[in-house]
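Bumping my old thread because nobody answered last time. Still need a sequence for this structure:
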């Protein structure tokens, strides 16, 4: 089952820094920088990605598997007996993590490629991404191929876990959803970093403030949190992480995870040493960004507050959790008919017109029926109910009629696609139903 395709040949592989930063997560930054700086095919990121992809074999579930003896060569191990020791350590790590090793490491004896010394065929293992990730983590990180493999399989394994758990393909997420996912990851990883920093001797509130500022200073060219806010023209009380795009969040996630790993693995002691480690990794990420894209984190665009996106997503999740027909028939719990609310009639009447349409059969209503129904939802003043001097109807009813007669206006709800102009009245559109649910969601 060996893949005989040529490795290391010319190729095309286009990715931006957002993609690259996710690939370099979990890898020693100095090793990543060396990989980027190397001009040889073997040590270039493009070539290494291509080699690992080509070495994988398509599995029935749509993912890939690798054979240990092929992985041995990719990781730079010359002798099988040395590499088999790495495989065994990885299998033990798998068991210690609470997984069955046989689910990830399948021991096989291929019928081809017999052992030249005689006896049964040489032993091999068929590996999934998680097994490859564990092998890379237990191999010698002083080898550049291993350093890259730790990057590659850590990211690919994380993405696969996201897909398996949530049915989400990270690559296909919108920018807003990437930001939400990465922001949540930053929160989770910062908690781990704080625990590791505390173990190293960072204990007081001022200590933690200095510790985190050092990480930012390394990544942002000497700028701490306050300087970053000033540079990006953010309010003094803003959380800089909440205004980062996915690329910038990925860079900070890399900084956080690598600092946490070093504090633990190197048993760093002393708050000054911890601060130095955080600054060092921030600086390494900055160097990596410079090599990969040339764009520094402080110059990346300021994004909308991610908390607003999170609030919108929660509304959408609640909306999706309710069957469509229920949404149509019962779009909200309040405001209720016979419990009218005060609104700016000239600006907001159309919203309540949509609300009333959404509960009508086929979403349709005549103009006269709409005029009769609105007072059950909206308070009308004596001035609104007063008759027009030049007309037989009231000022209020004329405002309702204007919803139709002004349909060519760019501010009109028909022009915007929330409703359709039908004979004698109006009909709500799918876009209008979604608006009703979102707009009135706060009442539910």
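Sorry it took so long. Here it is:
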């Amino acid at each position: 089952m060996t893949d005989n395709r040529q490795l290391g040949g010319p190729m095309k592989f286009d990715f931006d820094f957002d993609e690259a930063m996710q690939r370099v997560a979990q890898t020693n930054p100095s090793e990543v920088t060396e990989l980027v700086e190397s001009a040889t095919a073997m040590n270039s990121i493009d070539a290494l990605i291509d080699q690992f992809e080509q070495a994988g074999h398509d599995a029935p579930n749509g993912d890939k598997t690798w054979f240990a003896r092929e992985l041995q060569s990719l990781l730079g191990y010359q002798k099988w007996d040395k590499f088999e020791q790495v495989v065994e350590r990885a299998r033990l790590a798998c068991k210690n993590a609470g997984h069955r090793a046989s689910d990830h490491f399948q021991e096989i004896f291929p019928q081809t490629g017999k052992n030249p010394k005689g006896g049964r065929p040489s032993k091999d293992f068929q590996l999934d991404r998680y097994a490859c990730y564990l092998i890379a983590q237990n191999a010698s990180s002083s080898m550049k191929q291993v350093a890259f493999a730790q990057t590659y399989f850590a990211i690919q394994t994380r993405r696969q876990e996201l897909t398996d758990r949530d049915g989400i393909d990270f690559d296909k997420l919108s920018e807003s959803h990437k930001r939400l996912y990465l922001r949540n990851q930053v929160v989770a990883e910062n908690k781990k970093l704080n625990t590791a920093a505390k173990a190293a001797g960072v204990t007081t509130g001022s200590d933690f403030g200095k510790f985190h500022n050092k990480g930012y200073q390394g990544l942002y060219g000497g700028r701490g949190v306050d300087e970053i806010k000033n540079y990006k023209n953010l309010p003094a009380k803003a959380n800089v992480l909440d205004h980062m795009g996915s690329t910038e969040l990925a860079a900070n996630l890399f900084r956080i995870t690598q600092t946490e790993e070093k504090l633990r693995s190197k048993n760093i002691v002393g708050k000054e040493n911890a601060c130095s480690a955080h600054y060092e990794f921030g600086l390494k990420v900055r160097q990596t960004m410079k090599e990969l894209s040339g764009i520094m984190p402080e110059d990346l665009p300021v994004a909308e507050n991610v908390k607003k996106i999170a609030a919108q997503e929660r509304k959408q999740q609640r909306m999706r959790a309710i069957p469509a027909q229920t949404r149509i028939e019962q779009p909200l719990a309040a405001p209720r008919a016979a419990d009218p609310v005060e609104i700016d009639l000239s600006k907001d009447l159309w919203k309540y017109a949509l609300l009333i349409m959404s509960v009508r059969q086929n979403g349709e209503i005549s103009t006269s029926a709409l005029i009769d129904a609105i007072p059950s939802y909206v308070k009308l003043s004596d001035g609104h109910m007063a008759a027009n001097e030049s007309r037989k109807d009231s000022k209020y009813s004329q405002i309702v009629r204007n919803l139709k007669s002004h349909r060519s206006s760019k501010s009109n709800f028909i022009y915007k696609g929330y409703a359709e102009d039908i004979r004698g009245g109006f009909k709500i559109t799918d876009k209008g139903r979604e608006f009703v649910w979102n707009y009135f969601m706060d009442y539910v």
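The mean pLDDT is 76. Let me know if any region looks off to you.
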